Amino acid sequence: MTTDEGIKYDRSLLGVEHPIGTFSVTREMIVGFARSTGETDEKYIGSPDGTGDVVAPSTICNIFVNGVSRPDISLEFGDLSFFAGQSIECKSEIKPGDTLSATTRLEEVYAKTGRSGKMVFSVWRTTFTNQKDDTVALVNESFVRRNRSK
Amino acid sequence: MNTNIVYFEDVELGDDIGPITRTVESDQVLEFVSLREPDPKPSRFTSEAAAKEEGLPNAIVPGAMNIALMSQILTDWSPTVCLKKIDVVFRGMVPHEKPLTFSGIVTDKDDSGNSTDLECDIVMENQEGVRLVIGHAEFALPSKP
Predict the structure, then answer these.
(1) Are B66 and B130 in the same domain?
(2) A2, A26, B10, B15: least CB-packed within 10 angstroms?
(3) List of chain A residues whose C-beta atoms are within 8 Å of the C-beta of residue B34
(4) pTM, whole model, 2 decimals?
(5) Residue B17: which CATH number?
(6) Which residue in the set A36, A87, A88 is minimally distant from B32, CB to CB?
(7) For B90, which of A37, A83, A88 is closest by C-beta distance?
(8) Which of B15, B36, B60 is the last residue of a domain?
């Protein structure tokens, strides 16, 4: 069972879009991301002589959401935080030269009780659009707070 | 890179995808972290000492990197895969320098004739068979010409 009753946090943040930045996508960035994650397909890493057109792997937006600072929701629960899960919807191809703008919003906060006790999840949804105003990716991130085991 | 061409008609419910095995090297994690922060400070992702200070047994692979690795179950399966959505849950810490096995199973196929969409469950396991990351993906394959 999930619920948000009784969870203390700043509810005024729910559904409010916050700009988190504008990001230029370079060939070097795409190839670096692809290589660091073990991609071997030349459509992502280019040809062995360092040339050739590339497109970004579908999950590249993670470079930009990783470590971004979001508004503090002032959640009054737990003393231990984890990155619980993530989803990425790939809407359109991302290429070198693209400029991506991102906004994020607090989608929901809910509690769940598991074997290790009560946990509170906060879910943020980040939307990336390119310079043509096309949505290229939607990223949902779920963070969990719980109390340390005694 | 796998050059095996897979078409929508080749796939049945319950088909296995993969497995593939990967080992994430510490240098790869450093390269990944450096994409966002060119001169990263030691952290649980890049430093054994920093990880141990946080009570972890060793440095771990960032969640943001794990989802990229998970997507490769599909993109490595066939260059014809068009990934539409990937959804993962992090269940355990993913270590550096240890073999990881990725696999999937086809769970849904749109036989209505309106699309060539499919869905699958995906999993990353360590050498002991412990599920470190689980998830679900939606993708499309082209029809046979």
Answers:
(1) yes
(2) A2
(3) 32
(4) 0.92
(5) 3.10.129.10
(6) A36
(7) A83
(8) B60
Q: Measured between CB atoms, does A55 come within 8 Å of chain B?
A: no
All structural domains of chain A: 2-24+68-146 (3.10.129)
- Is there a single domain that holds both residue B56 and residue B69? no
Cβ B77 vs Cβ B2: under 8 Å: yes
Within this chain, do residues B83 and B30 fall inside the same structural domain, yes or no?
A: no
Domain count, chain B: 2
Neighbouring CB atoms inside 10 A of A105's CB total 17
Is A106 an interface residue toward B (CB < 8 Å)? no
Stretch (H or E) spanning B22: strand B16-23
> Is the CB of residue B44 less than 8 Å from the CB of residue B51?
yes
What is the extent of the structural domain holding B47? 25-60
Do A97 and A29 contact (CB within 8 A), yes or no?
Answer: no
Question: Are A127 and A135 spatial neighbours (Cβ–Cβ below 8 Å)?
Answer: yes
* Shortest Cα distance, chain A CAs vs residue B62, angstroms: 9
Residue B74: count of CB within 10 angstroms of its CB: 24
Contacts of B32 in chain A (CB under 8 A): 33, 36-37
Amino acid at A10: D
CB-based contact A29 B35, cutoff 8 Å: yes
B chain contacts of residue A33, beta-carbon cutoff 8 Å: 32, 35, 68
pLDDT in tens, chain B (145 residues): 677 899 999 999 999 999 999 999 999 999 999 998 888 999 999 999 999 998 889 999 999 999 999 999 999 999 999 999 999 999 999 999 999 999 999 999 999 999 999 999 999 999 999 999 999 999 999 999 9
